[in-house]
Amino acid sequence: MSHHLTAGQRAMLENTLRLRLQDLLRQRDLHQEGRSRVDHARQVLTQDDDDAPARASDREVDQALTDLEQIELREVTHALERVGDDDYGLCEDCSATIPFDRLRLNPAARRCVSCQGAREGSGPPAR
């Protein structure tokens, strides 16, 4: 199989992924104040103040942010697991090469722009 990424490019992408993983873990710990996700949600629910509607809204925002953090954490972890594999940087849907510039912007990218656009409903239909 032809390797479209050089060893240097892979090393750079792996380093970027490792740094992002550290940032996400630090952000999660700060966001949850060292508690598990369940304990953090319980704490948000039981805050003792008189503004229940605002607290409900804050809780929804808090949970959405936590969900997004968890999704990105999984994506980055998965990318780190496969960065050394021959198929890293190939689209999971069509096997096309994902350009290095796209990977540099998002080293966890699993699809080419065309397939990602089709998946999100903003690109050409899937082949």
TrEMBL record:
Fetch the Gene3D superfamilies from UniProt. Answer: DksA, coiled-coil domain
**Zinc finger DksA/TraR C4-type domain boundaries:** 87-120
Domain of life from the UniProt record = Bacteria
Xref: PROSITE patterns:
ZF_DKSA_1 (PS01102), ZF_DKSA_2 (PS51128)
Q: Point to the regions of Basic and acidic residues compositional bias.
A: 30-42
What are the recorded GO MF terms, alphabetically?
A: zinc ion binding
Q: Where is this region: Disordered?
A: 30-59
Write the record's keywords in alphabetical order, separated by commas: Metal-binding, Zinc, Zinc-finger
Q: Mark the dksA C4-type zinc finger spans by residue number.
A: 91-115
Q: Write down the Pfam families for this protein, in alphabetical order.
A: zf-dskA_traR
Q: What is this protein called?
A: Molecular chaperone DnaK
- Source organism of the structure: Caldimonas caldifontis
Q: What is the lineage of its organism?
A: Bacteria, Pseudomonadati, Pseudomonadota, Betaproteobacteria, Burkholderiales
